[in-house]
Amino acid sequence: MELEGSELGTKEYWETSYTREIKNYKSHGDVGEIWFDEDSQQRIVDWLLKQETLNKQTARVLDLGCGNGMFLIALANEGFTQLTGVDYSPKAIELAKGIAKDQALNISYDVADLTQNVCPTLGTYAIVHDKGTYDAVSLCPDNPKEQRTNYLATVAQLLHDKNSLFVITSCNWTEDELLQSFEHLFVKYCTIPTPTFKFGGKVGNVVTSVVFKKK
């Protein structure tokens, strides 16, 4: 199955969006939209905090498609110190750097296209986080299947070892669809419960959050 291409899958859309958000931030201090919602973000933060084997001082965390960087800011406020965010939108990185600086937080941000081989410059991580970025890649109007394949290969290389975790939240793909698409590279570690809805006698999820380890 392929999703229909959308402007949400183009770099131009995000550059325009974050250019506007930079202006709003400078004018009003508004950090902009948190992708999906704050609940989805906090759900992941809370789950990470419950992982007893995770050392907040040493665990390297990478946020893929970090946008305004608010997920990493939430982790920094919980005591995580090894934080990096990447986005293919230079304007997103500009906004994220500005917010982190204003909050006196030491978070690294870099421009990186995750459908390209960026691993040698980024290194490896204990936690790799994706909230909506795989969705955006899937909406690319040009060669979405190839882009997703490249993206997942990059994610696998960014995980430090088989104990490293790939935490993904999606609003476009069900858990079963993610499992099928990821099975060549990843195995499911656990599901993070998300709100459900009932329609036509069937129960579904507004968003799906799954944690994977690499094979």
UniProtKB/TrEMBL annotation:
It holds the Pfam family Methyltransf_31. One of its GO terms (biological process) is methylation. GO terms for molecular function: protein-lysine N-methyltransferase activity. It is found in: Cytoplasm. Keywords: Cytoplasm, Methyltransferase, S-adenosyl-L-methionine, Transferase. It comes from the Eukaryota. It is an enzyme of class 2 (transferase). Its EC number is 2.1.1.-. Coiled coil: none annotated. Residues 57-191 form the Methyltransferase domain. GO terms for cellular component: cytoplasm. The keyword Transferase applies. S-adenosyl-L-methionine-dependent protein-lysine N-methyltransferase that methylates elongation factor 1-alpha. Belongs to the class I-like SAM-binding methyltransferase superfamily. EFM4 family. PANTHER family: EEF1A LYSINE METHYLTRANSFERASE 2 (PTHR12843:SF5), PROTEIN-LYSINE N-METHYLTRANSFERASE METTL10 (PTHR12843). This is Protein-lysine N-methyltransferase Dvir_GJ21427. It comes from Drosophila virilis. The gene is Dvir\GJ21427.
